[in-house]
Amino acid sequence: MSAGTPKSLASSGQKPIQEICHPLGAEDTASVLTPSPDVGNTITSIGGKDLSLPNGTPVETSSPASSSSLLNRLQLDDDLDGETRDLFVTVEDPKKHVSTMETYITYMVATKTTRVEFDLPEYSVRRRYQDFDWLRTKLEDTQPTHLIPPLPEKFVMKGVVDRFSEEFVETRRKALDKFLKRVADHPVLSFNEHFNAFLSAKDLNKRQGLALLSKMGESVKYVTGGYKLRGRPVEFSAMGDYLDMFTQKLGTIDRIAQRIIKEQSEYQVELREYGPVYTTWALSEAELQGPLEGVASCMANCSSALDELTQDMSEDFLPVLREYVLYIESMKIVLKKRDNIQAEYEAKLEAAAFRKEDRASCTQVPTDVEKCHDRVECCNADLKSDWDRWQNNKRQDFRQLLTGMADHNIQYYEKCLAAWESVIPLLRDKQPQETETEED
Amino acid sequence: MMADSGPKEVAVIGNTELTSAELDNNIKNTMVEIEKGTSLLRKMEISVAEAEKRTGKNTVNMQEIYTVYLIETRPVDALTEGITPDSLWRRYSEFELLRNYLLVTYPFVVVAPLPEKRAEIVWHKLSADNMDPDFVERRRVGLENFLHRVASHPVLCNDNIFYIFLTEDKDWKEMVYETGFQAKADSRLKAVNAAFRVKNPDGRFTELKHYSDELQTVLSQLLRVRARVADRLYGVYKVHGNYGRVFSEWSAIEKEMGDGLQSAGHHMDAYAASVDDILEEEEHYADQLKEYLFYTDALRAVCRKHELTQFELEMVALDLACKKQQKEELVTGTVRTFSLKGMTSKLFGQETAEQREAKLQVLEQQLKEGEEAVKEKNTESDEFVKTAWVDIERFKDQKDRDLKEALISYAVMQISMCKKGIQVWTNAKECFNKM
């Protein structure tokens, strides 16, 4: 289990320290905090009834979950230094819900805001993955010219991944938290009515079926256009090219990371056999018994350090890579939409010019062509500013991801180093029978 | 490890008068000599300096390629600057001959082993090829180590054949054969026989045999697993090299992130490359373990010799007891045990008094000889046990020292590897931070 400092997520939504009140302050007094890694499985609840901690003690404020969310808020975003935030969102406290029909996980979405668009300054609602998915679809539909942040993968193969394991749930929670923060950070998306509803409404009136249909409809309309694009502005072509190449690189990095994990596991298998041989050997020896046993236990320590490294990489590194690949997929769709809007405009413009020639008198540019033109301009502007924001976020995310990888490896080697250094004095230990002094 | 000069009071064949105090003294002297670092065989520096390939015709007149090793010797108290050492070339088979000679001539000594003839326990990077330069090099080091072991042994270092092996090129082989050592070699069959039928072996030798079997098993396993571990470690490091390539490619499409990525990639390449040196160093540790793995054969050989000696003593004693029995029967006229004599006398009648007298005289003579033989064998056996045990104690101390040192240097290697790992990843992290 990766213990230690919780990871802070880059981007958005952080207040200066003084303005923060405890995330669990006024709400849900009996609510349960995310179980610490030492506790067994997630706590189940039936019908939404809250429980206290397994050992019966009341909720404490200094558990890992609260400190994690606290750190979330304390970490200042590089880019947005000095900017005042007025919308604060976190995803916390996963809980399992068991009903006759299904079992699923809900997360607590906590909001603090001073925006007038919200009725209350604080909200705390329970949402499940479906709800996040609904929100994203709504955002895509209503803000087609913007880059909508990605969600973690929806479908997991049952039997391959345990949907209710602590690791999986925690990974998902982090991704959902990042998603909401990015939306909250976005100057346009954060004011979206559906986002507001998501954060504040007790019950989401989702009308899933319709949303699904409309989503398909819109996508089809925007993606397959029917209009031929004349000349894509260079910058958008460049974006498309970049995304293609970047996806490729991410795929390669994912494969390498997986390969390393595999090689490390195989190394681990051998290491687990290696250490005990020294123990066996120690049994036949007299003076060498101490040193040999020391070496054996040292190797056991290195072995568990390796375990932690492999686990950390699986949990922290791979999911983020995959999330970015999804992100890029959705961005490519937005670029296509933009292309189609431009194509539509060009077609209409051409048609209008053609008609103009017929009716020589008409000098006014038709309003629908004007509208199209506006759409193109807006779309391009939105995309450009979103692109810059995305590039920045990407840079931070990868800086964090890769330094995290470096940190995990450094920690691994430091643990091994400590183990071996502690064995040296044991090896050099002088026995009472020796009369000569050894030179160290 | 440099050779030791032979101390004056040392256990050699023929000297049976060692008291335990003297034995202890010998052990101490040997150890002190080695520890002091004045250690040189008879003031001589020995090294196996080079290896070379030769072609020639072998015993069945076929062309073969073989390796020869250059043995250099130089007196140590000479002004060493500018003095060219004496040298001669030897093949592996000649080393083997030397060792066999020593084994037979000094059966109470735990004779140092030779390095592997063929590369057996390897990890994938090394081919199991005798011509592979890395293998040849490690064998050269192993042969040098063998010579140092012999040269620093209190008994073996005085051997003339050994000295000539080091110093004289011509006719060494003939000299060895002339010693007739092969005739002295105990036949395998005898030795196996003895192992099964000896009644009262010295308990310490039984224990030692048991220990050497255990040590052999555990060291074999250790070396095998270590080789597999090395193999896997190699894989882990090398895959990281792929990061180097992809970071480089990625940096080409980035603006601000490019430099950080590019330099991080270089560190990943360096990381991947570093494993070669790490594993090369570890081979040295494996070689140290291998030496002691092969030493177990020498230990068992000493145990077998004891069993053989003991067996022969028991046989001779049994023979003597038999003869005494026969004498008694003859004197008293009674046939206690079933014997051919008894049968024939029953069938063909008793012997005459004269015949009996004659037989008695022969028996008396045989008894005398038998008693001499038993006395001799007893002495031989005792002496063997004494001298062998001195050497075994010497060996045990040497083993404990050497293996402890080996473990220490292994730990030091691991520490160095960890520090390098920390360094590389810290460097990479700095680059990532600049992204």
From TrEMBL, chain A:
GO terms for biological process: autophagy of mitochondrion; endocytic recycling; piecemeal microautophagy of the nucleus; protein transport; reticulophagy. SUPFAM superfamilies: BAR/IMD domain-like, PX domain. It holds the Pfam family PX. Residues 62-71 have a biased composition (Low complexity). One of its GO terms (molecular function) is phosphatidylinositol binding. Residues 26-71 are annotated as: Disordered. It comes from the Eukaryota. GO terms for cellular component: early endosome; phagophore assembly site. Keywords: Protein transport, Transport. Belongs to the sorting nexin family. This is Sorting nexin-30. It comes from Oncorhynchus mykiss (Rainbow trout). The lineage of its organism: Eukaryota, Metazoa, Chordata, Craniata, Vertebrata.
From TrEMBL, chain B:
One of its GO terms (cellular component) is SNARE complex. Residues 47-172 form the PX domain. Keywords: Coiled coil, Protein transport, Transport. One of its GO terms (biological process) is positive regulation of autophagosome assembly. Pfam families: PX. Residues 353-380 form a coiled coil. One of its GO terms (molecular function) is phosphatidylinositol-3-phosphate binding. Belongs to the sorting nexin family. This is Sorting nexin 4.
